[in-house]
Amino acid sequence: MYRLWANLTKQTGWHVHHVIWRVKGGTDDSRNLVLMHPDCHRQLHSRVNRGLPTTLKSG
Questions:
Q1: C-alpha angle with apex 56: 38 to 59, nearest 5 degrees?
Q2: Separation CA 23–CA 29 (nearest Å)
Q3: Distance between CA 36 and CA 7 in Å, rounded?
Q4: b/e map of 21-51 (b: 16 or more CB within 10 Å)?
Q5: Pairing label, strands 33-36, 56-57
Q6: Residues 6 or more apart from 16 whose CB is under 8 A from it?
Q7: How far apart are the C-alpha atoms of 59 and 50, rounded to whole Å?
Q8: Does the model's pTM come out above 0.90?
Q9: How many Å separate Cα 24 from the centre of its chain?
């Protein structure tokens, strides 16, 4: 599982991530969205591009 590790602050900002990506039929419904630290979000998408696991697990 991909672990989220960085705290969100006003200084770091945040990105909205679609759990089920819109290109795969996901919606903008709040149940399909998570706030992510910008670095974590970039790393998650980088893992996808390399074919690595991307299941989100907080904590």
A1: 80
A2: 14
A3: 9
A4: eeeeeeeeeeeeebebbeebbebbeeeeeee
A5: unpaired
A6: 33, 34, 35, 36
A7: 24
A8: no
A9: 15
The CA R_g of the chain, rounded to the nearest whole Å, is 11
User: Does pLDDT of 58 surpass 60?
Assistant: no
Taking a C-beta distance cutoff of 8 angstroms, is the pair 18, 4 a contact?
A: no
DSSP secondary structure letters along 3-59? EP-PPPBTTTB-EEEESS-GGGT--S-GGGEEEE-HHHHHHHHHHHHTT----EE--
Query: For residue 53, which amino acid is it?
Result: P
Q: How confident is the model at residue 27 (pLDDT cuts 50, 70, 90)?
A: very high
Contacts of 59 (CB under 8 A, 6+ apart): 3, 4
Q: How far apart are CA 14 and CA 5, in angstroms?
A: 13
